Amino acid sequence: MNAAGLGTRRNDEEAIRWYRKATAKGYAPAQSNLAFMYSQGRGVSLDGGEAVRWHRKAAAQNYAPAEYKLALLYFEGDVIPQNFPEAMRWFHKAAEHGSAAAENQISSAYRFGRGVPQSDAEAEKWYRAAAGHGLQEARHNLEVLRSGWLPSARTSFSEPPALFSEAAGVRTDSAGPDTPK
């Protein structure tokens, strides 16, 4: 509540104090929250190593949000060195523990060949899984993948597919693009 300012003013130092009390008892959500604070430098000095350490403690308890956040740290490489294989390992663990967001990230990695070989088939498989868990973003991404509008790592931009042109009310026949119907 202190970290988000719910019912009180946001107070990162007070949030850290409460997270530390809960982490002393091995509470995985508090460990993950403390890791987040270290990754953002909120209430503590920015420290990627501490962020990884606390996320790993929570992840050791199969806490999917910590596994997902740890994967993001490795994937983005902002506060620790970027490491795609390690990111994918943690995304897969989070997905195994029910994280639709992790499934969506795995999909995007396959879609664009980031840390894994590019594969639209694998991307579709993982987008389907995330969409099946109710993640709206994954449903959208699946439709974009199916439409062919957003290029993968192996394609390039050209004309938008007819589906998008039709939705926009734009003709792409002999009258030329951008001609209203």
Account of the protein in words:
Helix content is about 60%, strand content about 0%. It is mostly helical and about 180 residues long. The chain has a domain at about 60-180: Serine Threonine Protein Phosphatase 5, Tetratricopeptide repeat, CATH 1.25.40. A two-stranded antiparallel ribbon has the order 1-2. Strand 1 (about 170) and strand 2 (about 180) form a beta hairpin. The protein is elongated. The protein starts with 11 loop residues before the first helix and ends with a strand.
Task: Throw out a few tags for this protein.
two-stranded antiparallel sheet, elongated, single chain, mainly alpha, 2 strands, 181 residues, Serine Threonine Protein Phosphatase 5, Tetratricopeptide repeat
Order of helices and strands: HHHHHHHHHEE
Question: In CATH, what is the class of the domain at 59-180?
Answer: Mainly Alpha
- The CATH architecture of the domain at 59-180: Alpha Horseshoe
Estimated structural class? mainly alpha
Please describe the biggest sheet, giving its number of strands, its sense, and whether it closes into a barrel.
2 strands, antiparallel
Share of helical residues:
55-70%
Short description:
The protein has 181 residues and is mainly α. The chain is built from nine helices and two strands.
Q: What is the secondary structure topology, with strand pairs?
A:
Elements: H1 12-24, H2 28-40, H3 48-59, H4 64-76, H5 84-96, H6 100-112, H7 120-132, H8 136-147, H9 162-167, E1 170-171, E2 179-180
Helix pairs in contact: 1-2, 2-3, 2-4, 3-4, 4-5, 5-6, 6-7, 6-8, 7-8
